[in-house]
Write a structure and sequence with these properties.
A: seven-stranded mixed beta sheet, four-stranded antiparallel beta sheet, 57% strand, globular
Amino acid sequence: SQTIHQWPATLVQPVGSPLSLECTVEGTSNPNLYWYRQAAGRGLQLLFYSVGIGQISSEVPQNLSASRPQDRQFILSSKKLLLSDSGFYLCACRGDANYEQYFGPGTRLTVT
Amino acid sequence: KNEVEQSPQNLTAQEGEFITINCSYSVGISALHWLQQHPGGGIVSLFMLSSGKKKHGRLIATINIQEKHSSLHITASHPRDSAVYICAVETSGSRLTFGEGTQLTVNP
């Protein structure tokens, strides 16, 4: 089964600073990968998804970007963080056999 | 109106009670997911279903495609079931749209 690693677990960054969150996946090849955000008191929202290396689809206009430099690596970035970027960021992949989505442990980002 | 509506938003139960959480959606879907989010934020997939009914232990999930409605049932609830339960519908490209979640608290 798939295992998803995310780091860091928590992050406090000042407004205007850059961001890089990394997600790596084990136990599968050529997975569909996803970045979700959960803002405080709100539901999960899909930010980006990728069906292959270098292929990124953005779901909502925002201050963030994503890249997939390797098959099992998915990176979420920002050049200049905003207060509204605070939230809980989850990386996920779709299972090979059963198509369920598997979630990483998440990164809690606080922009101050 | 959200594409995925869950009810109730909050639910408090006594240990041993039968619990039902409902999910209604308004779009065409390829599958529906039930997820469990623990206090630390970690999310676990409970079920993915596109028709009928599935059962894992004390958890049962049903879906009615015609009525665009799904339910998650927990039998003989236990305090360790306390968590946020999230309904999500899968559309094209296996993208998920999420409900707001149901906060379940089971008291001993």
